[in-house]
């Protein structure tokens, strides 16, 4: 189960902007800055390297008592003892994922519609990632959702909702009054030269919503 009070700032990793730093280094800086959840997103690593990376990041998230979510890969989640997985609409069905992982792992689901959101809640999702709100730097074909659509989705379910997609410190204020439980970001943290300060700034902005 995901604590609604512990998903304000959801940081999704990306190796694109490491610039000589290690992934562990930048993740730890985001944790020091106050990130509530870390999602390890690795689309191009072979299994053993992905697993090795997950084990290293898990040590960090345990140190800071923050959940580690694995993007898409259930087997990596199991073998690294991560806290859960995040799955898209085209990935393994939620019901099957829950059966494999059991009731104690966190499972998040991407949703873009009220129907997808209701189905996710009905089938046992712990939270929903809704977006892309402003397009996406990591998913070029992601079409932006309107704030009206976000509001309608919020009203349709009771589980936590995390907004995602092109969110930065400059546009977070637009979520005021939407009822979202958290904000998920990639480049707004990991593209920045000072990860810790960028994370702290984002948290300050979110606290004003």
SSE arrangement:
Blueprint: E1 9-12, H1 23-33, E2 37-40, H2 47-63, E3 68-71, H3 74-80, E4 84-87, H4 94-101, E5 106-111, H5 114-122, E6 127-130, H6 147-156, E7 161-164, E8 182-185, H7 187-190, H8 195-207
Parallel strand pairs: 1-2, 1-8, 2-3, 3-4, 4-5, 5-6, 6-7, 7-8
In short:
This protein has helices spanning 23-33, 47-63, 74-80, 94-101, 114-122, 147-156, 187-190, 195-207, and strands at residues 9-12, 37-40, 68-71, 84-87, 106-111, 127-130, 161-164, 182-185.
What about the largest sheet?
8 strands, parallel, barrel
Q: How much of the polypeptide forms β-strand, as a percent range?
A: 15-25%
Anisotropy-based shape: globular
* Named CATH topology: TIM Barrel
CATH architecture title: Alpha-Beta Barrel
Radius of gyration: 16 Å
How many runs of DSSP E, i.e. beta strands?
8
Distance between the termini: 24 Å
**What would you call the structural class?**
alpha/beta
The mean pLDDT is 94
- How would you write the strand order of the largest sheet? 1-2-3-4-5-6-7-8
Q: Which percent bin holds the helix content?
A: 25-40%
């Amino acid at each position: 189960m995901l604590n609604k009070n512990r998903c304000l700032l959801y940081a999704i990793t990306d190796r694109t902007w490491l610039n000589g730093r290690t992934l562990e280094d930048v993740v730890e800086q985001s944790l020091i800055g106050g990130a509530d959840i870390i999602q390890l997103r690795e689309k191009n690593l072979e299994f053993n390297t992905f697993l090795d990376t997950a084990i290293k990041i898990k040590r960090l998230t345990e140190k800071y008592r923050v959940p580690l979510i694995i993007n898409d890969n259930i087997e990596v989640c199991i073998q690294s003892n991560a806290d859960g997985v995040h799955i898209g609409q085209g990935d393994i069905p939620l019901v099957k994922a829950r059966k494999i992982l059991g009731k104690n792992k966190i499972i998040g689901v991407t949703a873009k519609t009220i129907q997808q959101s209701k189905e996710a809640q009905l089938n046992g999702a712990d939270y929903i990632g809704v977006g892309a709100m402003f397009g996406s730097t990591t998913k070029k074909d992601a079409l932006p959702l309107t704030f009206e659509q976000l509001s309608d989705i919020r009203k349709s379910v009771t589980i936590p909702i995390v907004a995602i997609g092109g969110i930065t410190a400059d546009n977070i204020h637009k979520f005021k009054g939407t009822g979202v439980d958290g904000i998920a970001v990639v480049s707004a943290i990991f593209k920045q030269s000072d990860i810790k300060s960028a994370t702290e700034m984002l948290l300050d902005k979110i606290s004003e919503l």
